[in-house]
Design brief:
single chain, 298 residues, alpha+beta, PH-domain like, 3 domains, 7-stranded antiparallel beta sheet, 3-stranded mixed beta sheet, 9 helices
Length: 298
């Protein structure tokens, strides 16, 4: 079997005293390396005196050293050199890199990457919603209110809000009627009207509802406005906005909440809040808000 192996390899020899390279023929044996240089010098390196310092990665030249602090050096370009060395001298093999391990390492890295991607997708699709559902009931109301206030102050500044007293009286009266059957409601509900033609409304954590002027223009009756308000109030009561922000902010926000990092929570919340106006609640959330909102609307 040994006779079928390639034993002679071309390389370079450096004596450790000068920078000059000498071409060399390196012969593998069971005990060590026989080296013959272009200067007609021959010597023998026992494997126990040789250590590999380079050639562990794809495309990297194999570098073997002997002695120190200015060691003699052998350079070999063909990675198969190490494969043959392992087969020829298995008892000395652990001192040297095995190229086959490189392939296994790449394969393992690839499998690890696939596992990580699969785990992340699974966590995002199923794990995070489950964690959010478990976490949401235990979030302090004061935290939700602070987050809601921060979102409103950031994205609905005072100068963009409608200031009509008559409009505010109508809306506040509807809110009072809608929340009257809820004496133990956790929030101080309020509605903010934004002076913008966008036809939209959304609930903010902590009991706040934002309605755009464009939607109010489309609404023709108090009953229709009450239905819209009832729908958004149910989003608040069911904490749909809070759950959605937790879900969209993903693991970073969850970690902040679980570790009690209030500043981190607010930062993640503000970043996620920009999506509130365009984000769609799940069909289940919408159906729940519709069902409960219809029951509450006058």
């Amino acid at each position: 079997m040994i006779s079928s192996l390639r034993l002679e390899w071309s390389g370079y020899y450096l004596d450790g005293q000068t920078a000059q390279r000498h071409t060399a023929i390196i012969t593998l044996t069971e005990k060590g390396l026989k080296v013959a240089t272009d200067q007609e010098k021959e010597f023998f390196w026992p494997y126990r005196e040789v250590h590999q310092t380079q050639g562990f990665y794809q495309g990297e030249q194999i570098r073997l050293e002997r002695g120190g602090p200015n060691p003699e050096i052998l350079l070999v370009s063909e990675v198969e050199f190490l494969t043959v060395l392992h087969r020829l001298a298995p008892d000395q093999a652990p001192r040297f890199h095995l190229p086959a391990r490189r392939t296994r390492r790449v394969r393992l890295a690839f499998l690890a990457a696939l596992f990580t991607i699969g785990f992340s997708i699974t966590l995002y699709i199923w794990g995070i919603p489950v964690l959010v559902s478990m976490l949401a009931p235990h979030i302090p109301l004061s935290w939700e209110e602070r987050l809601g206030e921060a979102i409103v102050d950031r994205w609905v500044p005072q100068e963009t809000r409608c200031t009509s007293e008559r409009q505010s009286e109508v809306i506040n009266e509807l809110v009072r009627k809608l929340t009257a059957p809820l004496p133990n409601a956790p929030y101080r509900f309020r509605v903010i009207v934004v002076d913008h033609p966008l036809v939209n409304a959304f609930a903010v954590p902590g009991g706040t509802t934002v309605i755009f002027r464009g939607l109010l223009v489309r609404i023709e009756t108090a009953e229709a406005l009450a239905a819209v308000l009832a729908h958004e109030l149910q989003h608040n009561l069911r904490r749909h906005a809070t759950k959605s922000i937790l879900r969209y902010a993903s693991m970073g926000l969850l970690v902040s909440v679980l570790t009690g990092d209030g500043s981190g929570v607010t930062a993640f919340g503000l970043e996620s809040a920009r999506m509130l106006g365009v984000m769609h609640y799940s069909r289940q959330n919408e159906e729940e808000a519709d069902r409960e909102g219809d029951a509450d609307a006058p």
